[in-house]
């Protein structure tokens, strides 16, 4: 049985796992790779569903060493891959040396087998070298923006952090890789899961209130909710902190997340309760207090309604998965 939050899920996004092939080159960035894959792994864990599946491949099918010496075992050659929803092209350093005739030929051949091509860090250079960015908008690591524009004048080079141009996506570096993946998670599974994944990695959580206000007001409101889980604030007070009245804040939340502030706050508190149930040995009573409930029975009722299981049931089943009984 899976325990994805009912509030956090939206059935209109449901489908089988999206498949990703990560094309690595010698001297790729570990940081870039982690920022591409860890959010997908987190989306799977947080939703309780297999939303994404990925493989690591190379041009020749051989293992690939990163810029810091970490070797990743390739699961095959690009030319032998049957195709997937996404092909992440990730050369990072030494990308000029990878822009060979062989690479261009392999990428052009792969175009028909992969739904969307994604140039990460300096990946757009290889896509442009293969003629796959002609007339398309794309970005690259900011150190190479001018060089890309001069070398490939038929490419609409942008200094945006992330660029979506139909079935060609691109981003400018390691941090923007994380932002691109968040965009994909939201497109596939809704804004709520995007915010859950971002919160897990504390993305944007350290910003002071004035900086929060400069972005999405609804996201800033959710950040305030996460900062005040143990002592929940009235919705009117949250709205006032954001310079809004209650009605306006409610509309912003509906527009961004499809639910009002009260439901959003409930989702945030129950998600934290589920995290504590699964990841700690705290008692249910202590978890209830940490999540803003006056008594454990009230939290248990809300928890069961949301996850179709009580905290104790969920903890027991998780323990059985980790430590199955001896036969």
Automatic annotation (TrEMBL):
Assigned keywords, A-Z: Transcription, Transcription regulation
HTH araC/xylS-type domain residues: 219-317
One Pfam family in the UniProt entry: HTH_18
PANTHER family: ARAC-FAMILY TRANSCRIPTIONAL REGULATOR, HTH-TYPE TRANSCRIPTIONAL REGULATOR RV1931C
Protein name: Helix-turn-helix domain-containing protein
Record organism: Paracoccus aurantius
């Amino acid at each position: 049985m899976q325990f994805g939050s009912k509030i956090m899920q939206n059935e209109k996004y449901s489908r089988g796992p999206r498949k990703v092939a990560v094309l690595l080159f010698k001297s790729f960035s570990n940081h870039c790779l982690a920022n591409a894959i860890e959010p997908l792994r987190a989306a799977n864990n947080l939703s309780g569903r297999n939303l994404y599946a990925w493989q690591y491949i190379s041009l020749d099918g051989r293992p690939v060493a990163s810029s810091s010496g970490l070797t990743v075992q390739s699961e095959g050659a690009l030319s032998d891959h049957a195709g997937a929803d996404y092909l992440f092209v990730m050369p990072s350093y030494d990308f000029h040396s990878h822009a060979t005739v062989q690479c261009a030929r392999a990428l052009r051949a792969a175009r028909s087998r992969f739904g969307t091509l994604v140039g990460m860090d300096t990946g757009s250079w290889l896509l442009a070298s293969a003629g796959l960015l002609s007339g398309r908008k794309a970005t690259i690591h900011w150190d190479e923006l001018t060089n890309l524009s001069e070398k490939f004048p038929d490419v609409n080079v942008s200094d945006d952090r992330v660029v979506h141009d139909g079935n060609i996506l691109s981003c400018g570096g390691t941090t923007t890789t994380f932002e691109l993946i968040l965009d994909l998670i939201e497109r596939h599974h809704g804004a709520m899961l995007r915010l859950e994944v971002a919160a897990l990695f504390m993305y944007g959580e350290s910003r002071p209130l004035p900086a929060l206000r400069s972005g999405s007001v609804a996201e800033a409101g959710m950040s305030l909710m996460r900062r005040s889980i143990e002592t929940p604030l009235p919705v009117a007070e949250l709205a006032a902190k954001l310079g809004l009245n209650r009605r306006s804040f409610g509309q912003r939340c509906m527009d961004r997340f499809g639910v009002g502030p009260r439901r959003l706050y409930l989702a945030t508190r129950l998600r934290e309760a589920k995290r504590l149930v699964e990841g700690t040995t705290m008692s249910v009573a202590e978890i209830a207090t940490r999540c803003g409930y006056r008594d454990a029975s009230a939290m248990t009722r809300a928890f069961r309604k949301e996850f179709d299981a009580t905290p104790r049931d969920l903890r027991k089943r998780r323990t059985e998965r980790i430590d199955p009984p001896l036969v």
